[in-house]
Amino acid sequence: MKTKPLLLAARKVLVNENTGSVEVSVVLTDDPTVHALNREYRGKDKPTDVLSFAQRDVHPGAVRIAVQSHETESLGDVIISVETAARQAKTQGIPLAHELALLTVHGILHLLGYTDDTEEGAEQMREKERQALSGVNI
C-alpha cells in the first residue's frame, strides 16, 4: 500500500489551512477497531470509514490557546478503516491510495473544525478536499 500520497495530501491540507507547526496522528486500522470506536464515542453501532478525535475545542467561537513558537500543537487523531476504504475505492474504481489520502484530508478538516452535517458544509469540505488532492500523484 502506498502511503506517500496520504502524507503529501495531509501536508497540503495543513499548508492550505495555514496551520503552522502542528501534529496529526493518522491510524490505519481495521473495521472491528473503527466499529468499536464509532459505537463508544458516537453511539453508532457500525463501522465507518474515518473518525476524527480533536485535541482542542473546534466549535465555532472556541478560543484557540496559542502555543509557544517552539512548540508543536497536536490537532488530534484521524482513525481510518483500511477495510472500508478498500471497499469504497473498489466501488468507485479508484486506487486505495487515493481513497486513503481523501479520508486523511477529510479527517484533518474535521480536526480543524469543518463539518459536513449541512449541504453547505459538505460542499465546502469537498472543495477543500479537491484542493488538497490536486497535484498529489496517486
Topology:
Elements: H1 4-16, E1 22-29, H2 31-42, E2 50-54, E3 73-81, H3 82-92, H4 96-111, H5 119-133
Parallel strand pairs: 1-3
Antiparallel strand pairs: 2-3
Largest sheet: 3 strands, mixed
Secondary-structure-based class equals: alpha+beta
Beta strand count: 3
| Low-confidence region ranges | 62-67
Overall mean confidence score, pLDDT: 89
The SSE string, one letter per element, is HEHEEHHH
Indicate the overall shape: globular
Distance between the termini: 11 Å
Q: Bin the helical content.
A: 40-55%
Number of helices: 5
Tell me the Rg in angstroms. 15 Å
Report the portion of residues in β strands.
15-25%
In the sheet with the most strands, the strands line up as 1-3-2
Structure description:
With 138 residues, the chain is α+β, with helices and mostly antiparallel strands. The protein is built from 5 helices and 3 strands. A 3-stranded mixed β-sheet has the order 1-3-2, sandwiched between helices. Helix 1 runs parallel beside helix 4 and helix 3 packs across helix 4 (96-111). The longest helix has 16 residues, at 96-111. The chain is globular, with a radius of gyration of 15 Å. It starts with a helix and ends in a 5-residue tail after the last helix. Mean pLDDT is 89; it is low at 62-67.
